[in-house]
Amino acid sequence: MSIKPDDHTTGSSELEKVSEPIADPGLPAHTWRPTDVDERLAKRAERQVAGLFGLSAVFTILFFVSYFAFKVGDNWNVSGGLGSSTVALGLTLGLALLCIGIGIIQWARKLMADHEIVEMRHPARSSDEDREVTVAALNTGLEESGIGRRPLIRNSLFGAIGVVALAPIVLLRDLGPTPSQVEDEEEGKGLEHTIWKANVRVVRDVVGTPIRAADLQVGDLVNAVPDGLFDLEGVDLQVQKAKAPVIVVRMEPDEITPGRGREDWSVEGIVCYSKICSHVGCPISLYERTTHHVLCPCHQSTFDLADSARVVFGPAARPLPQLPLAVDAEGFLVAQSDFTEPVGPSYWGRGA
């Protein structure tokens, strides 16, 4: 189909008419606010906004105080038994963020420019002229916000945000004690030690009954924990459940190849190893009696329990830590000591 020149001209003219912005979009006439015409009211609004930002900083400081003053597990006599630490931390940090939010809203409502701005849409990259206009508009917006002319608001806002930003840094302390915090702290703390120690009985997991060496048959595998584990509560219980579980296996004594210095770590063919895989910490107990291999179900790391839990397959880089065993006067299995190496996967400061 051919297009006549006059048809083409007419079409372009109509397109230009369609592209023209609406002259009057129906916006109401601008109404000046009290703070726009009265500098005294503007200064008062400025002090109110700065006061909210300052109050936010105060609540953040109270958040820090609450973090160190209240311990996890302390309860107040309130409905639902809410913990004092949870209530204090939630209220203080929530009020700190609320004050910043209210302050910004008041700043925008009373002091920032409130003129309507119309921006044309562009189907492609804007021209350099349009970009210059946009930059100029942004600069105008910054100027009209008053952030340059009102240093009290600007500085108090930056101060409040800066103090609130410190809260996550303080919370990093909850990641746990460092590996060096072992000798002079409570038993089993840190990454390098558990609550296993000399003469602690080996008890069956879940039920907590002690294990008599004579009751185990060749080929048995028992999931076990240290006696006293279930006396713990809360965080302490969860931490030790992640480190202390073991597997106890009985095999023929002549099938065991003890590691150097571990000749007396087994009892009549009974050996004990950490249940926590040395790859990424999965619990393991898939045992193959004929080969004495135990398999991690997560990534198929395989360990030879007859040869100091040596890695025979998979991504694990280290053998399972072995717990030295003995028997007490009543014939029950007990530990000679804690593990002589850290349990679980590698972490900072520790090589593979």
- Number of separate helices: 8
Please count the beta strands (DSSP E, at least 2 residues each): 10
The helix content, as a percent range, equals 25-40%
Percent of residues in beta strands: 5-15%
| Residue windows where pLDDT falls under 50 for at least 5 positions | 1-18, 181-185
- The end-to-end distance, rounded to whole angstroms, is 77 Å
Order of helices and strands: HHHHHHHEEHEEEEEEEE
For the biggest β-sheet, the strand order reads 1-2-3-4
User: What is the approximate shape?
Assistant: elongated
Overall radius of gyration = 35 Å
Structural class: alpha+beta
Biggest β-sheet: count, sense, barrel?
4 strands, antiparallel
Overall mean pLDDT stands at: 83
Number of domains: 2
